[in-house]
């Protein structure tokens, strides 16, 4: 048993707007507020129906508190984890707020790829991007092209610079994009198909498979190729 389970539900619901206000505070105030909100959501003490009315204020505060995208020292892993948890609970209800947030998340990915110094932040960042892709493309299949245009240059830079920490994440996200494109989301435009096809020879290079963390994501990606681009594989 933890202290959160002893708090009355009405008290938690009443305190939620106050916690959201503190997310925009400085230093540890922001961190503690974001961590508290994330724990309350994870513990199902703030269910979706309670969270939805506060979604605009919460997501606005979280995205504002992520820090400058070009300054990794300001990137707060607790805020990013709260972003991920909030998106996971809100699902489609978060769509109106993703249009503004996604460019910032992609920009952060481009920055941290050059110096991956915060592994927990990076993990939650990739997970948030993956979830956002799924939510947006499910709602608007044609949006997959925009995601590919925004993310492919970053992925190519990561692969070319051999950023080992990020490679498993990149392969997983490529798998997700290819699976969604192949299932009919966004169609199979020539430019997109060629971009994926250009990656295929690199994916079977032995050095990639020598890294244990790469194996499962690579298997998934190759399976996606076989399922959606079999003519390129056979």
TrEMBL record:
It comes from the Eukaryota. GO terms for molecular function: nuclear export signal receptor activity; small GTPase binding. Gene3D superfamilies: Leucine-rich Repeat Variant (1.25.10.10). One of its GO terms (cellular component) is nuclear envelope. Keywords: Signal. Residues 1-25 form the signal peptide. GO terms for biological process: protein export from nucleus; protein import into nucleus. Pfam families: CAS_CSE1. InterPro entries: ARM-like, ARM-type_fold, XPO2_C. Residues 44-232 form the Exportin-2 C-terminal domain. This is CAS/CSE1 segregation protein. It comes from Pararge aegeria.
